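Narrative of accomplishments. A recurring question from our advisory board has been how the design workflow behaves on a single, concrete structure rather than in aggregate. To address it, we present the structure tokens for one chain from the evaluation set, followed by the sequence designed for it. No filtering or post-editing was applied between the two.
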């Protein structure tokens, strides 16, 4: 996903002949809807597919199809793979969620690993006694079986009692004409418990302010989803495989803003 963003942002992008591109896979981390649309429209990848899974599930559980409606191809991770079981549950009660409700995505079947090497405790935490792999991802399924990954359960931000999933805000901010990439996380706040900070990487040569970002949000997203803080730069902390480390983003933000973690019971 980040490779696609970087390629689309090249100053000489229009010099490349992409007429022979047709298909491919996008996976590894949540991809903004706007980026998916640009890959299809600007990179000529009309048959690109989105895949979702984990290393522990060998690795794909969901995938889009080239003949799916466009809104499903860019707005979901597709439908379940053959011979794989999936369910979305309430992470507290374990009950299966209704269609349209958000919960934790679980998967079961031939693709699920046997366990973590010499780590039975980690294995029992990830895979329950009935063989269901608990992904830790929040998801929602529509009436046609298409699934949207809302974000990581642990990445969910609770601001004043309202649950906020960073992916929603990231997708919205990616529609700003000056934004190349963005990541959103939570930071502690004495009044609301948590507030939002958006790490924004601007396109080359573009200059905007924190207030410009907040003004862009007003009237288009709920007031409690407007980032309190905005940090500009392209120094997103990542793993060696290119995945964003949001816990490090939070640590860096807390230090730079001079905030303190809130004590809880």
């Amino acid at each position: 996903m980040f490779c696609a963003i970087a390629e689309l942002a090249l100053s000489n992008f229009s010099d490349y002949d992409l007429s022979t591109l047709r298909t491919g896979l996008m996976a590894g981390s949540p991809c903004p809807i706007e980026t998916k649309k640009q890959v299809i429209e600007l990179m000529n990848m009309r048959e690109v597919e989105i895949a979702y899974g984990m290393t522990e599930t060998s690795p794909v559980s969901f995938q889009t199809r080239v003949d799916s409606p466009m809104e499903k191809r860019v707005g979901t991770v597709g439908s379940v793979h053959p011979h794989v079981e999936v369910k979305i549950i309430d992470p507290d009660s374990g009950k299966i969620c209704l269609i349209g409700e958000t919960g934790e995505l679980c998967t079961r079947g031939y693709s699920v690993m046997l366990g973590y090497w010499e780590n039975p405790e980690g294995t029992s935490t990830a895979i329950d006694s009935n063989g269901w792999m608990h992904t830790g991802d929040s998801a929602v399924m529509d009436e046609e079986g298409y699934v949207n990954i809302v974000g990581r359960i642990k990445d969910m931000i609770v601001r004043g009692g309202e649950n906020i999933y960073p992916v929603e805000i990231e997708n919205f901010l990616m529609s700003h004409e000056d934004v190349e990439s963005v990541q959103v996380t939570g930071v502690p706040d004495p009044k609301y418990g948590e507030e939002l900070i958006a790490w924004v990487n601007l396109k080359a040569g573009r200059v905007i302010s924190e207030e410009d970002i907040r003004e862009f949000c007003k009237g288009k997203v709920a007031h409690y989803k407007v980032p309190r803080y905005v940090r500009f730069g392209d120094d997103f902390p990542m793993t060696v495989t290119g995945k964003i480390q949001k816990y490090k983003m939070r640590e860096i933000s807390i230090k730079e803003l001079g905030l303190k973690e809130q004590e809880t019971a």
